Each structure stands twice: as C-alpha cells, then as structure tokens.
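[#protein-structures] MJ: dropping P2Y purinoceptor 4 here for a structure pass
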Amino acid sequence: MTSTESSLFTALGPHSDPDDSELELDCWFNEEFKFILLPVSYAVVFVLGLGLNALTTWLFLFCLRPWDATATYMFHLALSDTLYVLSLPTLVYYYAARNHWPFGTGLCKFIRFLFYWNLYCSVLFLTCIGVHRYLGICHPLRVLRWGCPRLAGLLCLAVWLVVAGFLVPNLFFVTTSPKGDIILCHDTTRPEEFDHYVHFSLAVMGLLFGVPCLVTLVCYALMAQRLYRPLPGAAQSSSRLRSLRAIAVVLTVFAVCFVPFHITRTVYYMARLLEADCWVLNIVNMVCKVTRPLASANSCLDPVLYLLTGDKYRRQLRQLCRAGRPRLPTAASSLVLVSLPEDSSCRWTATPQDGGLGR
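AK: finished. structure tokens for P2Y purinoceptor 4:
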C-alpha cells in the first residue's frame, strides 16, 4: 500500500467507503447504512429474482413454444436476469462482512462484470422489444421482413456479444486490494486509474444506456400516440386502455430501475473529479448507494411485466396453480409488453392476415 493510500484511509476515517477509497480528499463518510441496506436488498432480490426468473425460463422453454420475436427477446431478458441473481450471494456476504472479499480477484472481476453485463443487456433487450412492438403497431407490414424469430435470435446473440465487448476493459479496471485485515473488491478501480475509468464508464453509459433509452422513449411515445388516436372503424374497447397502461408500466419500471442509478452515478463521478465539497460528496454518495439496489430490482420486476402484459403467460401460470402442470405448449405470440388481443387495434393498421403480427 502506498503512502498516499495510507494517508487517504486515515483522512477518510473508519466509516468511509473502502470501495471508493481512491477519493483523495479530506472527507469522512459515515456509511453504516450501506452494511444494512445492500445485504438486505440484494438478499431480497436474490430470493425473489431467482424464483420468478427460474419459473419464467421454464415456462418459456417448455410451455410457450413456438416463440415469436417478442418472446425470443423476453426469454433472453429472463436468462440475463437469472445469471445476474446467481451472483448476488457473494455480494450479500461482502457487504454483510463490512467490505471483506475472501473469494479472490478473479471472482471479484467477474461479479462486477456480471452486474453491468446484465444491466446493459436488459436495457438493450427492452429496447429491442420496444422497437419490435413499435413496428407491429405503427408499421405492421415491416414486421413481415424484420420481425421473424430467427432474426430476433441473431439480434439477441449480437446484444450479448456487443455488451460483453464494450465491458471487457472493466475486467482490467476492477481489482482487489488489502486494507488492514480485510480485502476490498473495488466497484471502480485503483486510485491512479480512476480518471481513465470515469471516461470509460461515461462512454459505456452513453452508448449502452443513453442511446437505447432515447430509442425506447420515442418508440413507446409513438405507440401511445397511435393507440390513443381514434381511427375510423376502431372499436372503443378497453384493449387500447390496457395497452396504454402496459406502456406506462414499462416506462415506469424502466425509469425507476435504470435512470436514477445512471444519473446519480454520473453526478457522483463528476463530483469527485471536480473535487466538490465534502458535504456534497456525502449527499451524492449516499443517494448513489441507495439507487444501486433499484438497478438490481429490475431482475425481479421483469417477470412481473410478463405477468401483467402477457395473456398466454398468465394462462399457463394459472394452469400451473390450478392443476399443478401446464397445458400443452402454446404459441407465445401474445406474450408482448403491449398486449393487443385478437379483436383489438391490430386491425386498425393491418390487414386481417397481418393482424397476428400486431399482438
């Protein structure tokens, strides 16, 4: 440990955040709340997320086939969430043990990598679903060309690989370091590389969150406009209201899980780079820690979205609850984040033979 780091730990005090020990300011952080908030929230997300996503994955694999493009995106979203929640027990131990990591540097790198891999894969899969639903509702004929399940599967594979490629530098930045009797698993990097890490992190956030977020907002706004606008011959049924509510739910969950985490993280990094006052750093640091579980909660909320907006998902789940076993495999074409029943607004913009593409 260098003399700079030694003096830094002393300046920050015994209750400062070792994950952020690269902050070279005479600032004392009291983060006792973190050692309760993070283990408890991660444990809850693990229990709920593992159960919900395991059930969802099983239903997709054995009860909801063949898949359409939207179901393909949803399956990969559930798979991403499942992989993430399996990493949480190590973080529960780490924060419950007050930032002690006994699992080695390699696993520290992998766990931190897995968090961001899941985060940005989830963002992009939700974006793919939004674009697909936009085409199905606003440009149904284009779905014939771009909405086939095979193309969706290739796009999902591209998402996995592209996000992993963008995050490879994270494997080099993240590391462990000793501090007294404990070993820290840094969420960022070493003190001397922090400036480089911030530039890398901001670039990743812009490309893998900022751009997809904007695309998702535009797609759902255009869908809401189409669904809300009365068209000639359109029945004033409750299906349009259900679809609008589904859009609202998706955007709300997206905003709650992803937006606060990225905003507070960006503000925190910039405050440290600009060497803001200690009280400002304390406030931003606390808010940033509070929003971290919200990003993890996405793994629990995605299956709830399937339940709220997928007709056949609900039928299979009810069948499991009533009879203990599902029906025969059913096509998952109505498993969509914007649910349009057979007699609904697909007919506003599509010919009868194309109506199934709008659901």
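MJ: nice. Strands lie at 176-179, 182-185.
AK: one more thing. The longest helix spans residues 194-228.
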